[in-house]
Structure of Cell division protein FtsA:
Amino acid sequence: MAGPSNVSNMVVGLDIGTSKVVAIVGQPTDDGGIEIAGIGSHPSRGMKKGVVINIESTVQSIQRAVEEAELMAGCDIHSVYVGIAGSHISSMNSDGVVAIKEREVASADIDRVIDSARARAISEGQRVLHVLPQEFAIDTQGGIREPLGMSGVRLEARVHLVTAALNAVQNIEKCVRRCGLDVDAIILEQLASSHAVLTEDERELGVCVVDIGGGTTDIAVFTEGAIRHTAVIPIAGDQVTNDIAMALRTPTQHAEEIKVKYACALTQMASGDEMIKVPSVGDRAARDLSRQSLAEVVEPRYEELFTLVRDELRRSGYEDLVAAGVVLTGGTARMEGVVELAEEIFHMPVRIACPQNVRGLADVVRNPIYSTGVGLLHYALNENRQGLGPQEQDGGLSAQPRRNDVSRRGPEEGTSALVKLKSWFKGNF
Ligand SMILES: Nc1ncnc2c1ncn2[C@@H]1O[C@H](COP(=O)(O)OP(=O)(O)OP(=O)(O)O)[C@@H](O)[C@H]1O
Ligand SMILES: [Mg+2]
C-alpha cells in the first residue's frame, strides 16, 4: 500500500464514543487545514454515558478502529490524542495574579500567572485536564489577549479550568495503553469538536456548541474568542432509541434502525399518512405505524434535552451573549426537524455542523459523528504549529514525552503479527 508522503507530521485522533470508536490519521495542509490519510471506525462496546464501564470490550473496539485506520493510511500508529466526556467532568473560571519581574511581560510571567490561576482547590479524586486562558489584565488595563512584551508591574489572568475524575482518566489511559499506544494528550470532547466545527466569527460573536452523541450531550460556550463555560448532560441518542423501544415494544436494534431511518424531532413536520413497519418482540406480527406517531414518541425527549441545554446556558450567565446562536453536532443532531425544534426552544439561530477544513477523505468525515475525531486532529496540529509539547499550551498534565504519532509501514510489513507484536512492545516498554 502506498504510504503518505510525509509521516513525521502526522497526528492521530481517537474518539472513544459511547456509540462508536473512531481513529483518524491526518496531517496539516499549507492553508491551515487537515489532510485525512486514514480513518477507522468500530461500534463501541464497553462505554456508557461517555465513560469506560468495560475495559476489555473498549480495548477491542479501539484495536479494531486503529487497525482499520493504519491499513487505510498505510502506517503504524504509536500514539493518539484522546477525547474524554462524562458527568464526572467539572469546569470553572478562575483568576491568578503575579508581579511582572522585569516590568515587561515575558513568557515565564505568563506561565507563572497561569499556574497561579490553576492553583485552586480541586476536589479529591479530580485531575486538571485543561487550563484555557481567556484574557489577561496588566495593571488597570483589562481585555488583553496577548500580553507578551507589554509593560507593567502586575499581570492578571482569567482562565477556564476543566477537571475530570482521576479514575475515568486512568481507565481511558489504561485502555489506550493496552492497545500498545501512548497517550499524547486527553482532551475534553466538546473542546475538540468546537475546533472542527466553529468559525472564527462565531467564537468572536459568541456561540454555544452542543455535541449530542449516543451517551452524552457536551456543551461549550465561547465569547470574544475564548471558551467561557463547559458542561456535560448525560442524556443523548441512546435515550431516544430507548424511548422508541419502550413505546413501540420493539427490540433496541430495531428501534435504532427505525429512529435513524424514519424519526422526526418535530411532530408537525412528520406525515400522518406515511406508514412504517415496526417489528415486534417475540413471534408477534409486525405492526404499521405512521411517521407522525413515531415523531410523537421522539419529540418530548429532544424537547427535554434542548430545555436542559437552555437551562444550563441560562445558569452559566452567557445566554444573552451568544449572538451567533447554537451550533449542533454529533450523530443525534442529524435527525430531521432538529433545527426547527431547537430554534423554537432556544429562540436563537441554530445550525447543524460537520467538520470543516478537511481534505482527503472529506466526503466521509464531513459528518457530525466525526466532529470530535477531526477536532482532536485540529487541536493536535494547532499545538504542533505553535511548537508546544502535548497539553503544554493549555497547561494540562502530560503523561509522556512526545514522539512521532505514526511511522511509515513498509509494503512488505503489512499487518504481520510480528510487526504488531513489535509495536506493542514498543508501546509498553
Ligand atoms: N440520522 C440520524 N438520526 C438520528 N439519530 C442518529 C442519526 N445518525 C446517528 N444517530 C444517533 O447518533 C448517536 C451516535 O452519535 P455519535 O457517533 O456522535 O455518538 P458517540 O460519539 O459515539 O457518543 P458520545 O459522544 O455520547 O459518547 C446514536 O445514538 C445514533 O442513534
Ligand atoms: Mg461523541
The radius of gyration is 23 Å. The pocket of magnesium ion (ligand 2) is lined by residues 17, 189, 211, 213, 330, 372 (CB under 6 Å).
